[in-house]
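Hey team,

Filing this mostly as a record. A colleague (T.K.) asked me to run one chain through the structure pipeline before their review meeting, and I want the input and output archived in the tracker in case anyone asks later how it was produced. No errors, nothing strange. Just documentation.

Input sequence:
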Amino acid sequence: MPKKQIYQTPYYKLVESYAKPNGFIGEGIHSYTNWRGVKLHETPFQDGESAEKLLVYYGIPKNHPLVTGLISAYHNDDVLFEEYKKRLPAELRLFQHRDVGLRQGGGLISLITKK
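Output structure:
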C-alpha cells in the first residue's frame, strides 16, 4: 500500500492523534490494561508500545515527524519518566530498569537507541 494511502487509514490517523508535542505517542508504556485486566485506554493504540508497533508494521520511514519525535522522546529521560509514571506504579520500575533490554542485546529498544 502506498504511503499516501497508509496515512489516510483509520489506525494511522488514530495514532497520529495521540502524538504529543514532546514527541511521545499515547499515554504510558505497556499499559493498555493492567495486571488485573482493567482497561486504561479507549483503544490499544493509545498505549505507546502499541502505537510504535503500528508505525513499524506500516513501514513509516525513520525521517517521518512521528518517528523522529518518538525517537527524540525516548532519548529524553525527563519525557520518559513522565510517561512511565502516568499509568501504573509498576511502570516506574520499568523506567528504572529500562536499560536491561539493551544489555541483553535484543528488542525494540536496541533499535531505537542505536545511533
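Quick notes for T.K.: The chain has a mean pLDDT of 77. The two ends are 29 Å apart (CA to CA).
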